[in-house]
Amino acid sequence: MSVKTNTQVVTGKVRVSFPNIFTPVESLNGGDLKYTVTVIIPKSNTQDIEKMKAAIKAAAEQGVNSCFNGKMPTVIKNTLKDGDNDVANDGIPLIEKYPEYKNSYVIRLFTKFKPKVINAETKEEILDPSEVYSGSMARVSMQFFAYNNKGNAGVSARLMNVAVYVGEGEHLGTFCTGEEFDD
């Protein structure tokens, strides 16, 4: 039996993008190699969005004494982004960079430890990275936590595990099918 806390969220069926869950990659700012995935949650999926917002609040409350020097920040930075209204780190609106984020929230998750990747239906471990692509449908577990890095304080989320609905989900971005060779 699994133990869940009020800072852990397991999503319903969502779309994943940039799934670096089999081989770690260098983070955007350099440093340690990490496993990462971006989760796209339609705004109509109010159940998962509310669970994430509650977990963000719970992690911030836990962080008051451990990270925020005894005082709750007025604004809590967090990794749950509005695909229609928020901007990327380079200042470009997310919706312009990633049209698939329209009418969705997105969250980028990471971990230093290899996540378990399983088939959502058979519960068998997935070993073939080609079975998980940008656009795959999956359930994702994550753990929210407070941080304070030299005055940059907020709440982030750690990738735990991924259950993939193999073959479900349209590929995002350009995808080479080989059809160009059909004569």
Helices and strands in order, then pairings?
Blueprint: E1 8-10, E2 14-26, E3 33-42, H1 46-66, E4 77-78, E5 80-82, H2 94-97, E6 104-111, E7 116-119, E8 137-149, E9 152-165
What does this 3D model show about the protein?
The longest helix is centred in the N-terminal third of the chain and has 21 residues, at 46-66. This protein has two helices and nine strands. The protein has helices at residues 46-66, 94-97; strands at residues 8-10, 14-26, 33-42, 77-78, 80-82, 104-111, 116-119, 137-149, 152-165. Strands 1, 2, 3, 4, 5, 6, 7, 8 and 9 form a nine-stranded mixed sheet that branches. Helix content is 14%, strand content 38%. It is mostly beta strands and 183 residues long. β2 and β3 (33-42) form a beta hairpin.
- The amount of beta strand, in percent, is 35-45%
> Which secondary-structure class do the elements indicate?
mainly beta
Instruction: Specify the number of helices.
Output: 2
Main sheet properties? 9 strands, mixed
Mean pLDDT: 90
**What would you call the shape?**
globular
SSE sequence, one letter per element: EEEHEEHEEEE
Helix content: 10-25%
**CA-CA gap between termini:** 55 Å
Contiguous uncertain segments of 5+ residues: none
Q: Give the total of beta strands.
A: 9
Overall radius of gyration = 17 Å
Provide the descriptors you would attach to this structure in a database record.
mainly beta; globular; 9 strands; about 15% helix; about 180 residues; nine-stranded mixed sheet
Task: Briefly characterize the structure.
The chain is mainly beta and 183 residues long. Helix content is 14%, strand content 38%.
